[in-house]
Amino acid sequence: MTISVLLEYFLLLFQPCLIVIVDPKLCFKNLKGVGSSKLHSLTPIAPILNISREDKRFISSYEVADDLSESSNLAAMDWEDFEHLIRELFEKEFSYSGGEVKITRASRDSGVDAVAFDPDPIRGGKIVIQAKRYTNTVGVSAVRDLYGTVLNEGATKGILVTTTDYGPDAYDFAKGKPLTLLNGSNLLHLLEKHGHKATIDLKAAKQILSEREKQ
């Protein structure tokens, strides 16, 4: 009888008496387990989103919406008043979640017109807003500029608001990106949602703006 056969016979004979002692904690550690102790006693705590709100570009804002009426043509507004109006509307929109909206120093460029800080830890963050008081269709270049601004600012989202509409290429570019494009109809709806009314007459606005430039 060989040694291997004797060993098998020995194991079969004494198997009931063999006791394997395993340290549960050591085994869990060696298997690289990850756990949390006393899950049943955890206290519900809402997640916190920390957002830096310091920016030298921010200036004091003023209210515009209360001065509007059904005859107010948004497309013919002073461009600076229009930016303050957009800030005011989004301040109302984000206030339900404790958010706030700051307006930046007027520059008439394609930079940031306003910044919304939404403290919601899941869908919130820093949101850059651009306001375009236009009388012509907004092209894809403006949307590209907005996307570049979102990336440059480290924002979670960008919103572009205009008094007109966007071309097909602009909508195509925005697909799949953290961008929201609001046209003139969306803007009027937002106004009405917060208790204000106005109108957008592009033809009349072009004439008014043309005469204003001649002065």
List keywords for this structure.
single chain, 215 residues, Trna Endonuclease, Chain: A, domain 1, six-stranded mixed beta sheet, 7 helices, elongated
Overview of this protein structure:
By secondary structure, this protein is α/β, with parallel strands linked by helices. The protein has a domain at 67-214: Trna Endonuclease, Chain: A, domain 1 (3-Layer(aba) Sandwich), CATH 3.40.1350. The protein contains seven helices and six strands; from the N terminus they run H-H-E-H-E-E-E-H-E-H-E-H-H. The protein has helices at residues 3-14, 24-30, 79-94, 140-153, 168-174, 184-193, 202-214, and strands at 58-59, 100-104, 114-118, 125-132, 157-162, 179-182. A six-stranded mixed beta sheet has the order 1-2-3-4-5-6, with helices on both faces. Helix 4 packs parallel to helix 5. The longest helix is centred in the middle third of the chain and has 16 residues, at 79-94. The protein is elongated. It starts with a helix and ends with a helix.
Structure at a glance:
The chain has 215 residues and is of the alpha/beta class. It has helices at residues 3-14, 24-30, 79-94, 140-153, 168-174, 184-193, 202-214; strands at residues 58-59, 100-104, 114-118, 125-132, 157-162, 179-182. Strands 1-2-3-4-5-6 form a six-stranded mixed sheet, with helices on both faces.
